[in-house]
Model the fold of this input.
Amino acid sequence: MTERAPTHPSAAPTLDPIAVETWVFDLDNTLYPARSNLFVQVSARMTEFIMDRFALDHEPARELQRDMFRRHGTTLRGLMSEHSVDPGPFLDYVHDIDVSPIDPSPELSALLGRLPGRKIVFTNGSVPHAERVMRRLGVDRHFDLVFDIVASDYVPKPDPQPYDRLIEVSGLDPRRAVMIEDMAKNLAPAAERGMTTVWLRSEHEWATAGAEGDHVHHVAEDLIQFLAGALGSVPTPR
Done:
């Protein structure tokens, strides 16, 4: 298991897969490698949507997109709050992308099948997008719930509200849950609620914000390597 020591090792809970009841996975750049560049497509579609909606050229549209993201956590949240954009057409448009850059992952599927406890996807994207990605990876059968931006009333991570809503809807016990996420700041509310957290390290600026806090309990370079290492002590089903 490729893992960096946490910033505050004395405060970091151990990760015993046998004791975990619920595994909470982010979707984009977590279940699949960031090098797949799927979110580059999503971002480009956001820019196109803004260009059409506001009759803007490319650069002003990109700047509006970045501004909404910086100040509201997601571009959609900003467009809804400040410009009354209907979320449905926005989500449909930006997630109409080519998922073929993601390679099917029998190895990830096998590891998820061995992982004790139930699995949940917790995403700022939509259920249809998550389902397409999971089907492409070949892992959809392992997940009991996709908790998306619609289920959180369009309030994105890392706002505390969707975490509380997820706990309420799923009935998970935070003290027996692990959250795995590529954006370090999104782990803070999970840790505050008692979850053990794993940051799937990325060098992207938007992913490293908050990485030095004590809410990051474990750091991994690769999801498959991390799960394989964590499952080292778990017997393989026969």
Notes: The longest strand covers residues 118-122. The longest helix spans residues 38-54.
